[in-house]
Write a structure and sequence with these properties.
By secondary structure, the chain is α+β, with helices and mostly antiparallel strands. The strands form two sheets. The protein has a four-stranded antiparallel sheet with strand order 4-3-6-5, sandwiched between helices. A two-stranded antiparallel ribbon has the order 1-2. α2 packs across α12. The chain is extended and about 75 Å long. The protein starts with 17 loop residues before the first helix and ends in an 18-residue tail after the last helix.
Length: 301
Amino acid sequence: MNSRIKNREDVIFMSLNKKTIIMVSIISLFVFILAGCSQTSNGGEGEKIVIKVNGEEMPMDEFNNYLETFIEKRVVLEDSNKKNIKADDEEIKQALSMYEQQYGGEENFKNVLEQNEVSIDEFKEELEYVSIHQKHAEDFMENVEIPDEEAKKYFEENKDEFISVRASHILLETEEKGKEILKKLDEGEDFKTLATEESTDESSAQNGGDLNYFKKGKMVKEFEDVAFKLKPGEVSDLVKSQHGYHIIKVEDRMEEYNDLKDEVLQVLKDARYEEYIEGLKEKAKVEIYLEDDKKDNKENK
């Protein structure tokens, strides 16, 4: 199991307050709990089935995932207890209230949980674990130091994963309309004004076409290939994609280590935390009891 709480694209959340981070984690948790309780697994061809209840099967790989989750939870809770790290009751209360409001009140929310065979106490327990796990990670991050030379080396070796551009665009339905807008730009008309008035991308048009910062892999390939080649202030020719015809203007580029240092350090701290969790799991005394080829299992009774 991947024990990292955040991936690279979530690093922005580190700048938010703790309460917001907890809320973000809980959203993922809620989806996980309901999916985990309601998902039916039929097992792929050739997969070893380790559990079958009323015809519902759990293959070995899914069982191993649950096992890894269980082991990680136990070692994180044990290590947190040693460090006197506890859940924040107020955060848990507010998170629970948020979900009750989202689902139309306490009773409606309980019904949703019941439909997915999750009790309110089980849900609260998982909220507490998310809170503890986050605080456990934060405690570790605050005390780990990454040498600047290591961070610079990692950045240089993985630069494409960090570089981002801030771009605006004007999206048009036809090539003819696109050429018409390009002509207006060549004549000196304002890019933002044209984006607001002409772009069919309504969400960005209201901001003058601004798409904010994005990294490679976040936009369709045709758009991305052009955007990352432009320098700040440059405007592209027409770029055709599945969405239509784009005119792209790059506003800014973030590609220097000093501009991206905090993000690089966070990625390395995440990796250190993952290694720390794996170390706890390796040191833990884990005993697994499985009986192979058991002939008198319940399905045959």
